[in-house]
Amino acid sequence: MEARRRLGEFLRTRRSHLRPEDVGLGTHGDRRRVPGLRREELARLAGVSAPYYSRLEQGQAANASPEVLDALARALRLDDTERRHLHELAAGARRPVTRRRPPPERVTPAVRQLLAALGDVPVVVLGRYRDVLAWNTAGHALFAGHLAPDAPERTGQRPNLARLVFLDPHTRELYADWPAKARAVVATLRMASGRHPDDPGLATLVGELSLHSTEFAAWWADQRVKAGGDAVYEMRHPLVGAMTVTHQALLTEDDQHVVVATTEPGSASHAAMTLLTHTTATARRESPARG
């Protein structure tokens, strides 16, 4: 029932974001008690019966075919990522409920080789619900220099990107447009919830963030999804100042995201990033000598 409820919530929320004029429907001056399309209007646009669509929203049906889901996606004006999320939610509603905790996430030797090969390019490996599984020296310096370098190796105590973005003052100050970064984190978590609907760790994380952050609670309820990809952020690093940084997220076969941070060659941001990585690498080499 929980998976069906999530499917219904997604449909209901996305329906509320559509206005009649967005889809070419006239309102004829009628006043609406709630925003968005009515259920019967969306059902008509998707070519399904209103009672059947109502059962989907109410979590009373779990047998929507791929064709029906695609029709609903078109009616709701979903993009490719949102359409995929809708199909994943429907698949989760059809599967039997399993509450087994997934096995611990580990970084493969191949991914660790990639971290080492990229050298001065900041790289962070994130798990299915944004646990930091590994980072190279440059990635640690850019994203979380205030944390211990070996923090990702402490299973059960690993940093979590979502917690850092919403609950850690250092990380919040790192982004000039913090709401944009925070919304992106929520959207990727929402996407993960469709792929792992019965993961108790994800449910615990969402509950914790909803309790301690009103912003997270509001944006989580908005049902936006994001699959990763590229994003450009203005970062304000405490050591080297402002930088324009592109975050590129690459998805592995183990459903892990390898986030690579790059700057435009020859730019002031590139110079600042080079200064940060070289300074950090030098300090780390000298630390054992001082000790």
Task: Provide a descriptive summary of the structure in words.
With 291 residues, the chain is of the alpha+beta class. It has 13 helices and five strands. It has two domains: 2-94, lambda repressor-like DNA-binding domains (434 Repressor (Amino-terminal Domain), Orthogonal Bundle); 109-290, Beta-Lactamase. Strands 2-1-5-4-3 form a five-stranded antiparallel sheet, sandwiched between helices. Strand 3 and strand 4 form a beta hairpin. The protein is elongated.
Summarize the structure.
This protein has 291 residues and is of the alpha+beta class.
Rg of Cα set = 22 Å
Mean pLDDT: 86
Classified by CATH, the class of the largest domain is Alpha Beta
According to CATH, the fold-level topology of the largest domain is Beta-Lactamase
What is the correct CATH architecture of the largest domain?
Answer: 2-Layer Sandwich
Number of helices: 13
Give the uncertain stretches in residue-range form.
Answer: none
Shape: elongated
Helices and strands, in order, run as HHHHHHEEHHHHHHEEEH
End-to-end C-alpha gap: 57 Å
How many beta-strand runs?
A: 5
Question: What features would you highlight for this structure?
Answer:
single chain, about 290 residues, alpha+beta, 434 Repressor (Amino-terminal Domain), Beta-Lactamase, 2 domains, five-stranded antiparallel sheet, 13 helices, 5 strands, about 50% helix
